[in-house]
Fold:
Amino acid sequence: MREEKEAEDARRMFVLPLQAVEADIDLMGHVNNIVYLRWVQEVATAHWNAAATEQQKAEYAWVVLRHEIDYKHPALLGEELEARTYVGEASGAKFERHVEIWRIHDNQLLAKARSVWVALDTHTLRPRRVEAGLRDQFQSDSSCLNSDSSD
Structure:
């Protein structure tokens, strides 16, 4: 059962390459915790921009209701990383998103995040229900599994 869920999540995964740069490093010599939060936001935005239609982008705006991050291992200067994201449950105006930050060279999970986003109507800026078509599109989308940061 767990293997089936992991296989399903992999089909829905969107990947964004990252690299730890000097500005990301704190006094402890590793990537600062707030940088992970920035990466969570960046991969969520990149996924939305890659998978949403122009009409959806014109109709929906997103705000964060909640972030939870579990830090597993530190990232260091110059390390090549990737953010992997997929969406979870959607209910009403809320949409759950999961993000994992991985170090490439040893395939080490560095951090896991769970965020709850709220959809807003771009005209009224009021919460709006996430339509079934949009939920289905992101929960089964495989057309945007990878993002190339060189674009």
